[in-house]
Amino acid sequence: MSEFKSVWGFGGVKFTLGQKTVTFDFLHNKGEIEFEPELFEKRTFNKKNLVRLIGWDAVITVKLSNYKPDDYLSFFSLFDIINESYRTNTPFTIQPRFAAGVYYTLAITCYFKGKIKPEDIERYECGQELELKFYSVYQIPELPKVVNTFIPSYLLLESGGYLLLESGGKILKD
Predict the structure, then answer these.
(1) DSSP result, 69-117
(2) Sequence spans of domains, the chain
(3) pLDDT for position 172
(4) Half-sphere exposure of residue 63: CA atoms within 13 angstroms, side-chain side
(5) pLDDT above 90 as % of the chain
(6) Predicted confidence band at 109 (pLDDT cuts at 50, 70, 90)?
(7) CATH architecture of residue range(s) 12-166
(8) Buried b / exposed e across 119-144, counting CB within 10 Å, b at 16+?
(9) Average pLDDT over residues 1-6
(10) 159 DSSP assignment
């Protein structure tokens, strides 16, 4: 029996700019990524359409939540990254479907363009949600072929053996 793997990964959202990093867990936060083609289109004299792919632009939409007592600190860390990015004219990296402990996750160099408007989830102070859009800096020539691949973690024992600490949710067999 093979194991299911999500295309472009599965998990929360991670933002990185230099030494600044903030991660939003996947329980209440969601990162979505879509790729839009840039095409060269021309119609010939005999009415034949010619279409050539120039490249793919990534558009990342994140839906972040402020439900728990310290969630606002993650929002402030993200605001610091966005502010620093604009101040220094430096793009930042987003891993829109990030999971800790995996070998590889999709990471896109982006910039932010849009509004920041936290929405109250009710008519009283109980939580907020924030939806943001980010755009890739670099166009890629092909769609990425990425799935999260888990790296098991082990503890080296005094006896020289190993103890499996994390299996990525896999059931272990003898």
Answers:
(1) TTHHHHHHHHHHHHHHHHHHT--EEEEEEE-TTBS----EEEEE-S---
(2) 12-166
(3) 46
(4) 9
(5) 45
(6) very high
(7) Beta Barrel (2.40)
(8) eeeeeeeebbebebebbbeeeeeeee
(9) 64
(10) T
